[in-house]
Amino acid sequence: MTKTDPYRPVDETARQMAHDLIEGASYGALAVLRPDTALPSVSRVALATDEDGRPVTLISTLSDHTRALQANPNCALLVGEPSETGDPLTHPRLTLHATARFVARGTDEHDTLRTRYLRLRPNAKLYMDFADFGFVRFSVSDAVLNGGFGKAWRLTPTDIWPA
């Protein structure tokens, strides 16, 4: 780390923190670009992980963020919530830069995600099979982990999900 580079070398602490933030996230902030104005927009979305621990969501085609992802699949996800005490900026959070991919209904991939998602998020049973809901996988290109003041790392997908 130099005086102009605030990022630490990636180590096991960073890898584990990023993994734990993703696995523990039941929701996250999804940043997209609005197709009508190209202005950024942020929505809260439900999150879970696939069988490899990578983030997925179940979203409605009626939402603005779905239309934005259909027009431009590039997005970012922010996971990590502050606890009820202390300065929120001292709590870890992870920004995942990603490309969204919609999963077609009636495929083995959809059925596998459906089973896992229900196991992780049983309340989704109430709306999961509505015609307007579908799964989105996020293919992560890189990530920025902020572990609190003075603790920041740039991560690659292999830092988070070793091959």
CATH topology name, in short, is Pnp Oxidase, Chain A
Low-confidence stretches: none
Estimate the global geometry from the Cα principal axes. Answer: globular
Output mean pLDDT: 93
Q: What is the alpha-carbon Rg in Å?
A: 16 Å
Number of strands: 8
- Compute the separation of the termini in Å: 26 Å
Number of helices: 4
Please explain how this structure is put together.
The structure is a single chain. This protein is α+β, with helices and mostly antiparallel strands. It has 4 helices and 8 strands; from the N terminus they run αββββαββαββα. The protein has helices at residues 12-24, 64-71, 108-120, 157-160, and strands at residues 27-33, 40-46, 48-49, 55-60, 74-79, 93-102, 133-146, 152-155. Strands 1, 2, 3, 4, 5, 6, 7 and 8 form an 8-stranded antiparallel β-sheet that branches.
Q: What is the element layout, followed by pairings?
A:
Elements: H1 12-24, E1 27-33, E2 40-46, E3 48-49, E4 55-60, H2 64-71, E5 74-79, E6 93-102, H3 108-120, E7 133-146, E8 152-155, H4 157-160
Antiparallel strand pairs: 1-2, 1-5, 3-4, 4-7, 5-6, 6-7, 7-8
